[in-house]
Amino acid sequence: MHTFFVVPTGFGVGLTSISLGLVRALELAGLKVGFCKPIAQLHPGDTGPERSSELIARTHGLKSPTPLDQAYVERRLGDGQLDELLEDIISLYQQAAEGHDVVIVEGMVQNRHASYAGQINLHLAKSLDAEVILVSSAESESLSELFDRLEIQMQMFGGPKAPKVLGVILNKVRNPDAVVDFSKRLEELGHMQGNNDVRLLGSIPWQSQLNAPRTRDVADLLGAHVLNAGDYEKRRVQQIILCARAVPNSVHLLKPGVLVVTPGDRDDIILAASLASMNGIPLAGLLLCSDFAPDPRIMELCQGALKAGLPVLTVATSSYDTATNLNRMNKEIPIDDRERAELVTEFVASHIDHEWLRQRCGSVRERHLSPAAFRYQLVKQAQAANKRIVLPEGSEPRTVQAAAICQARGIARCVLLAKPAEVQAVAQALGIELPAGLEIIDPDLVREDYVAPMVELRKGKNLNAPMAEQQLEDPVVLGTMMLALDQVDGLVSGAIHTTANTIRPALQLIKTAPGYRLVSSVFFMLLPDQVVVYGDCAVNPDPNAAELAEIALQSAASASAFGIEPRVAMISYSTGDSGSGDEVEKVREATRLARAQQPELLLDGPLQYDAAAIDSVGKQKAPNSLVAGRATVFIFPDLNTGNTTYKAVQRSADCVSVGPMLQGLRKPVNDLSRGALVDDIVYTIALTAIQAANLPGKTD
What we know:
alpha/beta, six-stranded parallel sheet, six-stranded mixed sheet, 28 helices, 43% helix
């Protein structure tokens, strides 16, 4: 068991954010991670539960032991019972460590309410035999000043019998150019103190959007009266402006994410903000101060903006006091703000040297690909693939946003099929900056280029030029023709089109890959501990034995392509030779055919779902199986079983499912749910890019 003890070097270093990211980084390295916050430190106004433990639980699905109350700790210390207190904490640690490879222990923050925190941290690190990771913030001081403070901390943990300082994580770095010099100085200091392992483990750049609270959080923290809630649960405060100017001098400040603060009798500012909102600018909200109630006649004129979601809050304090209160707001992540917690987690994890930490932890257990690791690998593989993906729904708002993200992060080179003016209008309304290189193609300008090639492709179906031109009015058909002619590497559609509308052109123009006779689908099920594959849950209603064998082999190849070691379970209502009937015989025959085609593949069936998924049941029902209890790919006998199972697991286990991903086509085409979120589209684009890179015989 390895233990990392995370210690803040001061107040406001972002300790909770670092803990969130560190857990995710170690998960990405394939480790099973436990978390323990031994002593709760509630912020003023907090009523519990303890913030770090609760955010870890909600973000990672990782239940940690309940921290000790700070008042209880202080009573123990006051009574001279330090040893008994440490025994209490070791008991909590043991609960957190059970079944894990590594445990993150979060130390205390030293402040005016806990001046003893430094000594407690030292005792804890010794008692837990932990390696210390110091966390510091470079937000408001130079790295040189910061280094002096770190030197003192390292001396405190130094000495032959003291816990070892493993390294430093710098948070909120505003000057990344100075980090290289800081890293060198840190290693030199380690050598001077006889610690040759100390290093910079992470440098987290300052990102203002990671500190953006929801408008509702601002209302709660100020005790504001809510005149109109609107979208205040969803909108985030990226910037605060105090409007004292006349309207013409304030208009340029009305941008997405801005919280407009103004006295309640400034009718002109209220009207201007409402007009901006009705014009599609998603302001964070309108905060009316100085205890002036807005004129009801003015508010009546603003009904359009209010109905469109503009939050309006009021406070009794003056403009100056309101601005002061806003500046002093607690910037910690609220425990119910999972969206922000996830963003912070992923961002911090991406800037931590998780591979070095994994090596530090030594050997690990059999690796399960966690949901976090799956998403991380998905992005990395897609970035390496560098594929061109066409998006026929080019002016659909979620699609525009997803394309901008993918282009900016290098996940794919996206092509939007839409009129450029429409895309620009959507981007402006949503406050999206379209990145350089994002292609926008007007279908009206290129449609004629595809008429003759489409007639040639469909000549066996008696398609003529007028018919082809009419079909090419559908942007999905146009995008599919671009794919058929190798002008793009993949296609993603479905945000506003049906599944049939996405798949039908692909079957007509792309056709199946060499060696395959059918198209099937898989879902990637992001279970709490690992990612598994379900197939086929979307395409083939009742496959015969040969088709079921082909689905199994397609799904195993898909799992392998996405970093999941394929252990394929052919699911039925009986295990092994225990049952009979046409459906069981179909699965049994499909298993035989699949094994004959790929004898090296770990594949077994028939297996009941519990025998395939649960180790203890697998050992009992199929003791000689190399798949039972360890399956990563589940092949269902028909669409009724597969679709029902995936939806039941998705809803009952509250897990994310990514898909359906189509397999068996000559080139990748993937469908979206019409309720897809922006992240869903981003990950589907990534899936498509990786598929394109893994086509049989494909070389780049």
